[in-house]
Design brief:
Shape: globular
CATH topology: Rossmann fold
Order of helices and strands: HEHHEHEHHHEHEH
Low-confidence stretches: 1-23
Mean pLDDT: 87
Number of helices: 9
Oligomer: single chain
Structural class: alpha/beta
CATH class: Alpha Beta
Strand content: 5-15%
Number of strands: 5
Distance between the termini: 44 Å
Number of domains: 1
Length: about 230
């Protein structure tokens, strides 16, 4: 009888080890949410989700939508993706990669009431607001979350240059939020673009070029594989 249980224990251990190794070898399952930072060059398959899929060999589902924001009240188009919070879909995600907030700040407040708008997105302590609520939803479902910041201009003119201070303040709050949970990581792109180098941006100096999308995806992929 003792010999039987010894054999059973060894067999069970092998089975559990094999199952664990099989899961470890499965491709990452990633949900991408956000705005045009994630969707730029999607038609040519050079958007951030495309590069993540190629780089990681991952199963990537992108729900990101150009022009999306958190403070979006139209129900039908919001459900179709223009409301970032409504982009979320349940699934067996290993990672949920999110960006957003820029359209709320740079377009939504019109250089007025920015502090009030920012507080609705995320409180100074990172505990309250639409961004923490969305991140918490993904975490409760068991996924890790990577929140991605925005590119900065290379010290040259851009339509959103005057919003730099507000963008920095928003991302500082997101970084505080991430520090509160080991399963959440803030990925800053603020230092990615060298001074005077326009090649990371599209001609509008707002959206990323294909090179910028590739560079952002490489930074995200590095974080996802190291955590």
């Amino acid at each position: 009888m003792r010999h039987f249980f010894a054999q059973f224990s060894v067999a069970a251990a092998i089975t559990l080890f094999s199952a664990a190794m099989g899961h470890a070898n499965e491709p990452l399952r990633i949900l991408v949410m956000g705005d045009s930072l994630m969707t730029s060059h999607a038609q040519s398959k050079q958007a951030v989700p495309n590069f993540l899929e190629k780089t990681l060999g991952a199963r990537v589902k992108s729900r990101a939508t150009a022009g999306a924001r958190y403070r979006y009240i139209m129900p039908i188009t919001g459900a179709l993706g223009l409301n970032i919070s409504k982009q979320y879909r349940d699934g067996p995600w290993d990672w949920v990669v999110i960006n957003g907030g820029g359209n709320d700040m740079w377009l939504g407040c019109g250089c007025m009431r920015c502090k009030r708008r920012m507080n609705k997105l995320i409180s100074p302590d990172g505990k309250r607001g639409e961004i923490p609520a969305l991140v918490s939803k993904a975490r409760r479902a068991g996924a890790k979350v990577a929140y991605v910041g925005y590119l900065r201009s290379p010290g040259m003119w851009s339509p959103i240059e005057h919003c730099k201070a507000e963008g920095d303040a928003l991302e500082a709050r997101i970084a505080v939020m991430a520090q509160r949970d080991q399963g959440v990581t803030f990925i800053s792109l603020a230092d990615m673009v060298p001074t005077g180098d326009r090649s990371f941006h599209a001609p509008d100096m707002i959206h990323p070029s294909a090179k910028g999308s590739r560079a952002a995806a490489a930074r995200i992929a590095q974080v996802l594989t190291s955590h």
